[in-house]
Amino acid sequence: MASRQFIFFLLLSVLAMGSSLAGAATGPGNIAVFWGRNASEGTLREACDTGTYNTILISFLTGFGGGAYSSSYSLDISGHPLAGIGDDIKHCQSKGILVLLSIGGPTSTSGNYSLPTPQSAAALASHLWHTYLAGGGVSSNSGDSTPRPFGDAVLDGVDFYVDHAGDNERYDELARRLHSYSGVMTTATVRCAYPEQPSTAALATGLFARVHVRMYGGDLRCEWGQFDSWNKWAAAYPASKVFVGVVASPEADKDAYLFQKDLYYGILQFAEKVPNYGGLMIWDRYYDKINHYISSS
Ligand SMILES: *[C@@H]1O[C@H](CO)[C@@H](O)[C@H](O)[C@H]1NC(C)=O
Ligand SMILES: *[C@@H]1O[C@H](CO)[C@@H](O)[C@H](O)[C@H]1NC(C)=O
């Protein structure tokens, strides 16, 4: 077979799979993607213009907490220039795409976060509200104006990606505080094995619209073949929409990577039957772009 034909064949297969994943009546539902882990992934606007995703998780706010009244926060979006992101957020939202900020991140990411006290949770909630949400830039703590990295764009909510936490950390308090402001959606991104300690108290608040379950990442207690872990999450949080989180390329996790047909016929066929199935969570935009896993561009 001529190589050009072969590439064409591959392209057709990917397009066919992409459209069956994205378009079928009983398709995967929502498609959420992490954006912000590699500047080579392109802009937020480009991600939204693929038409593939309906939720973007900007990742990550990697540094927060650590003391009673921490005032040091760090946003790490892998060198993406901040200029223009606010406009891109509005552009995405104008297409009906939700844009959330994910806080925390994998332990391997150079983050340093903890919420050891109710005060640190309250301070973070206030920071998020004034810096990224509808709080308009004035911190209630200090009265000082808070710089808004995305300008006057208002994010739709906050994703809790808490990969490590001590016994008494206060992510539950953070969730309650965020909900005391109006119109803030909260979601959680958890490890596959159920239950996992870092998110248990927060999820017990019942305030999470969505739970994204990472079916990758070297969690040895999580076995794909059984699919048990995902079902446990779905059964444990019937009031949340539960997502199947996958890597979009073998480069991200070669052991956990699933070919599209295995994802569709091996996993989604079953997951979709669960009443609170929410959709797919893709790690991440960069890998999806290079591998054309879900998006075709
Ligand atoms: C980002 O993408 C480039 C290629 O475009 C790659 O060399 C680099 O390792 C990636 N960085 C991360 C953190 O994955
Ligand atoms: C993380 O932050 C705490 C306090 O804010 C500090 O004591 C600790 O050394 C930091 N750890 C790293 C790895 O930066």
TrEMBL record:
UniProt key word Disulfide bond: yes
GO MF terms held by the record: chitinase activity; enzyme inhibitor activity
Any Pfam family hit: Glyco_hydro_18
GO process annotations (BP): carbohydrate metabolic process; defense response to fungus
UniProt keyword terms in alphabetical order: Disulfide bond, Plant defense, Secreted, Signal
Domain GH18: 29-297
GO cellular component: extracellular region
Segment forming the signal sequence: 1-24
Broad class of the protein's primary localization: secreted
Name of the protein described by the UniProt record: GH18 domain-containing protein
Species of the source: Digitaria exilis
